[in-house]
Design goal:
Bound molecules: NADP nicotinamide-adenine-dinucleotide phosphate
Organism: Mus musculus
Protein name: Saccharopine dehydrogenase-like oxidoreductase
Family: Belongs to the saccharopine dehydrogenase family.
Number of domains: 1
Strand content: 15-25%
Shape: globular
Number of helices: 5
Structural class: alpha/beta
Domain Saccharopine dehydrogenase NADP binding: 11-124
Strand order of the largest sheet: 3-2-1-4-5
CATH class: Alpha Beta
Helix content: 40-55%
Oligomer: single chain
């Protein structure tokens, strides 16, 4: 039930993690390769603004796109703070959740997305969750 008023099409949550960095880089690569008119607004999310900025800077260097940091939103969000999860979910059409282990951290993100009408996908391979 995502609406057009949401500022971001996609939010990569946990962008500072090992996997989240690869996901962030791939989203950036896709967006850069797309025609200007078909690019989607997107953001990275996590609990450390500094780490998120470092991830964007690293991707910018790797992809030869110095302006990347200014083209991508940054959302501060912590699993232990449900209000911050709601706030993230409200801003996105889709949350791509890379914060794991999902057996500890997954459920609050799914809950926030359901309650705010946001689509949610993850990279979970944990049998306990699946
Ligand atoms: N399906 C697969 O093949 C596959 C492969 C690899 C991984 N995975 C899944 O992906 C998950 C992540 O793996 P990873 O290696 O990328 O882990 P990781 O490097 O430890 O990254 C974990 C991420 O979660 C964030 N995080 C932890 N606690 C948080 C909190 N309270 N609030 C907000 N963010 C928090 C970390 O943020 P900070 O940087 O701030 O600590 C970091 O961005 C794994 O648990 C696994 O289930 C699946």
């Amino acid at each position: 039930m995502a609406t057009e008023q949401r500022p971001f099409h996609l939010v990569v949550f946990g962008a500072s993690g090992f996997t989240g960095q690869f996901v962030t880089e791939e989203v950036a690569r896709e967006q850069i390769a797309s025609e200007q008119s078909s690019r989607l607004p997107w953001a990275v999310a996590g609990r450390s603004k500094e780490k998120l900025q470092q991830v964007l800077e690293k991707a910018a260097q790797k992809l030869g796109r110095p302006s990347l940091s200014s083209e991508v939103g940054v959302i501060i969000c912590d699993i232990s703070n449900p209000a911050s999860l709601d706030e993230m979910a409200k801003q996105a059409k889709l949350v791509l959740n890379c914060v794991g282990p999902y057996r500890f951290y997954g459920e609050p993100v799914v809950k926030a997305c359901i309650e705010n009408g946001t689509s949610c996908i993850d990279i979970c391979g944990e049998p306990q969750v699946l």
